[in-house]
Structure formats: C-alpha cells, structure tokens
Write a structure and sequence with these properties.
Mean pLDDT of chain B: 82
Low-confidence stretches of chain A: none
Number of strands of chain A: 7
Helix content of chain A: under 10%
Structural class of chain A: mainly beta
Radius of gyration of chain A: 15 Å
CATH architecture of the largest domain in chain B: Sandwich
CATH topology of chain A: Immunoglobulin-like
Number of helices of chain B: 3
CATH class of chain A: Mainly Beta
Strand order of the largest sheet of chain A: 4-3-6-7
CATH topology of the largest domain in chain B: Immunoglobulin-like
Distance between the termini of chain B: 71 Å
Largest interface: A-B, 37 and 42 residues
Low-confidence stretches of chain B: 19-35
Oligomer: heterodimer
Order of helices and strands of chain B: HHHEEEEEEEEE
C-alpha cells in the first residue's frame, strides 16, 4: 500500500511547501449503486504531516473531500534534506504512510 | 521422556500463537483509537452552525478580510473543486473548510502545529451551487471568509 501517497516537499528560504496526492476512493456512503443499494462509506478520516518529530499538521476529513485527494500545506523551520512524513487512516481501518526529503 | 518433550514443543507453539493473537488484537485496536479523535458529530452535522459548534466549540464567527478562500467561480465538476484557504492572522490553531449547501457541510478540518503556516489547499466535493466557507481559529476566536462557487454538475450522489 506504500504507493498510495505521492509526496513532494520543497523549501524556499525556511518555508517548506508540502504537496501530496493520495489514491483513495473517498466514498461518502450516501451514493447508491445501479441496483439501488447504498455503497458503503469509505473515506480517509485523518491525515498527519510530520517534520522530523514535530507534528506540523493533522487533518480530519469527512466524505466531502474529493476522490484521490490532494493536500498541500506550508510550514516554517525546515531545510533541504529534512524528512517529511505523511500518514493517513481511513474509516475502514486501512492506513498508509510515506516520507520524502525536502528539496 | 519422549512425551514430555512433545509437550514442551506443544507449549512453545501455543505460546507463540497467543503472542501473535495479541499482536493482531493490538493492531485492530489502533484504528479505533485514532477514530476516537475524529470529530464524528461535526462531520455528521447537517448545518454549518451545528458543525462549527461541534468542531470548534462555538458557531460565532467574525468575518475577516485577512482570510483568502481561493476557489473557482464556476466549478464544472462538483466532485472536484480545488479550494485553498490562506490567512495572515497570527497564531492560527486550525482551519476548517465547509461547503454550505452540502448534506454534511464540513469537508475538512486541519489542526496546525508548531511552525505551520496559515495555509491549506485541497479538493472538495460540492453538491450544488453555494458558498465555500473557510473558518480560521486563532487565539480561541473564529474568523471566516466565504467564496461563492457555481456548480454545474453536482458531486454528491449520482
């Protein structure tokens, strides 16, 4: 599952911009399939972004975030070579994480 | 002698199996522990006000010109609406993104830690034309800014 996250972090001065794309269906649970049966909800509930041991950002998501979500945030105090880690957990208990070095 | 040896092997085997069972049990518990932190009531709320009071403790927001909500004027596909919320307010604790007209308005909430800038960008679903609301919590107060988005094809439901 390690390939569900595409992650990129770049530094400009001491400001780091983190961009990531996660592959996930993000099903709200309110849609129905062709037979009229509700499609079970399946979406990411929590995404965390860490810079070293510092938790820079924790995102809580609902079904209102688009399929294959994109996320970007910025923080200060990072430098090229530092590691940034993104991890997510969904409502069905799946999870994944990925890390990248700041460029 | 022979029997007791076998017994030993058997005991070892069962011990290992139970240790594995415990590990699996612990693994199963982790997502639930994480889910507990997830503001379920806020995401299930049907109104912007209910959602905000569940999430932030209050629904009272001050309109602020220091928040920029960047979203398209017209979203051709409501399933993918890029939204960026940025703010120059100091000491931002969290940023929430809500779509006013969605069945559950709250799309995402971001808790910002040490060093984080007042900037988040993501893509949300919008059921129909309405305002995207960016809510910023700073110093225990809520500030909000809106941006109207016209949706030509809805993104919630078929």
């Amino acid at each position: 599952m390690a390939k569900s996250i595409k992650l990129r972090a770049s530094a400009k001065g001491d400001e780091v911009t983190v961009k990531c794309l996660i592959t996930h269906p993000m099903e709200t649970g309110s849609r129905k399939d062709k037979a009229g049966k509700p499609i079970p909800a399946h979406y990411i509930t929590e995404v965390t972004g860490e810079h070293g041991s510092n938790k820079v950002m924790t995102a809580y998501w609902g079904g209102g975030v688009s399929k294959n979500p994109y996320l970007s945030f910025k923080f200060k105090g990072g430098k090229p070579g530092d590691e940034v880690k993104i991890s997510w957990v969904d409502n069905q208990g799946n999870s994944d994480s990925s890390s990248a070095k700041i460029k | 002698m022979n029997t007791s040896m076998k017994r030993r092997v058997f005991l070892k085997g069962s011990l290992a199996a139970s240790a594995m069972g415990a590990a699996v049990g612990a693994g199963l518990l982790t997502p639930q522990a994480v889910l507990a932190a997830w503001p379920k009531a806020a995401f299930e709320a049907k109104k912007v006000e209910d959602s905000l009071s569940n999430l932030m403790g209050t629904a009272a927001t001050d309109a602020s010109s220091d928040i920029t909500v960047k979203a398209p004027d017209i979203a051709e596909n409501g399933a993918v609406v890029p939204v960026t919320v940025s703010t120059s307010i100091a000491g931002v604790e969290s940023i929430a993104i809500l779509a006013e007209k969605n069945p559950s308005p709250l799309a995402a909430s971001f808790d910002l830690g040490k060093g984080a800038e007042g900037f988040v960008s993501t893509r949300i679903k919008m059921g129909k034309t309405g305002d995207v609301i960016g809510v910023v919590k700073a110093g225990g107060k809520l500030y909000a800014a809106r941006k109207g988005v016209k949706v030509t094809i809805g993104g919630c439901g078929g």
